[in-house]
Amino acid sequence: MAGDERRRYQRHDARVAAMCRRVTEYGIEPAAHGETTDLSLGGFGAIFDEYFESGDVVDVDLVLTPHVVTVRALVVDVSPAGDRVRIHCCYTDPPPLVARAINDYLEIRCT
Predict the structure, then answer these.
(1) pLDDT tens digits, 29-50
(2) Which one, of 34, 91, 86, lies nearest residue 57 by Cα?
């Protein structure tokens, strides 16, 4: 399926600070700093200075004022964004409190 047809949740334009750490078999790599471009209950898009690949598993801190939440995600798409990289990720079973914080943020800031 193309584009939004495969998405279960509506994505909203949302610019929030994000720190992304690649999870490998050897541990967790240092954080790359960036900003989301969109956010949903199922995932997010973001732009980072560092390169990620489709299939990478990442831990991402999202600054959803007044909360900072950490969620594990799978990188499903990567594309160039000038001298940076745009990634799209889907969450891998976020804990209920994290899912609630994301939902609350979207309801307050994006509706």
Answers:
(1) 988 999 999 999 999 999 999 8
(2) 91
Give the Cα separation of 73 and 46 in Å (integer): 12
Q: Which residue is associated with the tokens 């939902």?
A: 103
Check which CATH number belongs to the domain holding 40 and give it.
2.40.10.220
**Token pair for residue 35?**
């900003």
* Cβ-contact 24, 53 below 8 angstroms: no
| Domain-embedded: residue 100 | yes
Q: What is the DSSP string of 33-64?
A: EEEEEEE-SSEEEEEESS---TT-EEEEEEEE
In a domain, 1, yes or no: no
pTM for the model stands at 0.88
